[in-house]
Specification:
The structure is a single chain. The protein has 10 helices and 10 strands. The chain has a 6-stranded mixed sheet with strand order 2-4-5-3-1-8, with helices on both faces. A two-stranded antiparallel ribbon has the order 6-7. The protein has a two-stranded antiparallel ribbon with strand order 9-10. The protein has 368 residues and is α+β, with helices and mostly antiparallel strands. Strand 4 and strand 5 form a beta hairpin. Helices cover 35% and strands 14% of the residues. The protein is elongated.
């Protein structure tokens, strides 16, 4: 069920805006975790100030300024000059471990302590701060780590896509699983999401939930359409059963259009035998064995190959006529003698020069 799911998320802290990220500094993140931002505790905030006293600092200083000073001291000890880093460099890595309301965990404090110990060993990065929040809807743990390893600034490389996938698997195998918590499945997207939403709504209709929830039902509909995963878990819907069946129910053949019977005029059915439309309405003549007349003109060729083959000439005759016409055309062109060009005219002038004139000469003054 939804109460037995453990949540684990990781992100980088910095001024980068890549992929629509919201820029955040280490100081701002530490101030939020240590509840130093007064605006977050107003009437419209998601923090209940009457329960803030229940928050617990598991590791690190009690103020955000001291957290930043500790980070600077660790960087200086590793020989890292802050001025040599990019402006949008990764200032810290933040991990969040969350337990849903009414989670089946006997001791949440012990669970969060195990999460912190496992994370410090899995990433092998210095822990700057670890704070448990109990003043929000779900109890959760914030952990800030400095991205410095082996005397170098590693940025967000420890939580890239491949590393984060392995990190999640190890967390649920080492910490969440032994605590009796389940892995939160990936969000469904695309067509699978539409199938999931439809399956949830069908189950809700069977259980009578739309009528039972009254004015609250539209809000539940919006939540289900945004992400139906939690509703599927709550209703016990298996993700392997939401895909519609590919088999369509047997249906009667569609009725024919008005004014047209199932057997159109001029056509006859012959059992299951199908006839092509190329010969419908025309008499079928058997192949002719008589030799075809010689083709002497283009009109004769059109008369035989065109009109005759279109209506009555069978396929074999059309092919034979076309081949005969092709052979005759080749024969005519092969026996045609090339046109002889006239011999050039020669003339010896009074000056003793010989002048030649052929068909390409157009300057008549050359003869003068």
């Amino acid at each position: 069920m939804a109460e037995s799911i453990a949540h684990f998320a990781v992100k980088s802290i910095g001024l980068s805006r890549v992929n629509g990220r919201k820029p955040c500094t280490l100081l701002e993140a530490a101030r939020h975790n240590l509840r130093e931002i007064q605006a977050e505790q107003g009437a419209r905030g998601h923090i209940d100030p009457t329960r803030t006293h229940g928050n617990t600092v598991l590791h690190g200083p009690a103020t955000a300024a001291e957290v930043c000073a500790h980070a600077e001291a660790l960087q200086a000890g590793a020989g890292i000059v802050r001025g040599s880093l990019r402006r949008d460099h990764c200032q810290a890595i933040e991990a969040v471990f969350s337990l849903p309301q009414q989670a089946a965990v006997p001791d949440p404090a012990d669970y969060f302590a195990k999460c912190l110990a496992w994370l410090a060993g899995a990433l092998a990065l210095p822990v700057l701060s670890a704070v448990v929040h109990r003043d929000e809807a779900a109890t959760h743990l914030h952990v800030l780590l400095l991205p410095v390893k082996d005397g170098a600034h590693v940025g967000s490389a420890p939580i890239d896509r491949a590393a984060l996938k392995r990190l999640r698997e190890r967390f649920f195998a080492k910490v969440a699983g032994p605590a009796g918590l389940k892995h939160a499945g990936a969000k469904v997207r695309g067509m699978a999401k539409q199938w999931a939403i439809a399956a949830v709504f069908r189950r809700c209709e069977v259980l009578g939930l739309p009528a039972a929830n009254g004015p609250l039902w539209p809000y539940l509909v919006a939540c289900i359409e945004r992400d139906p995963t939690a509703a599927m878990l709550a209703l016990g819907i298996d993700a392997n059963t939401i895909r519609p069946s590919d088999k369509t129910p047997h249906s009667e053949p569609a009725p024919s259009p008005i004014g047209i019977e199932s057997n159109p005029i001029g056509f006859q059915k012959e059992g299951e035998k199908h006839r092509t439309l190329s010969c419908v309405g025309f008499a079928h003549s058997p192949p002719s064995k008589q030799p075809l007349p010689a083709i002497t003109s283009s009109a004769k060729l059109w008369d035989i190959v065109g009109r005759r083959s279109q209506w009555t000439a069978p396929h074999q005759d059309r092919l034979r006529v076309a081949r005969a016409a092709q052979q005759q055309a080749i024969a005519r062109h092969s026996h045609k003698r090339p046109q002889q060009r006239p011999a050039p005219a020669l003339r010896i002038g009074d000056d003793g020069l010989t002048r030649e004139r052929d068909e390409y000469s157009h300057d008549l003054s050359a003869w003068d």
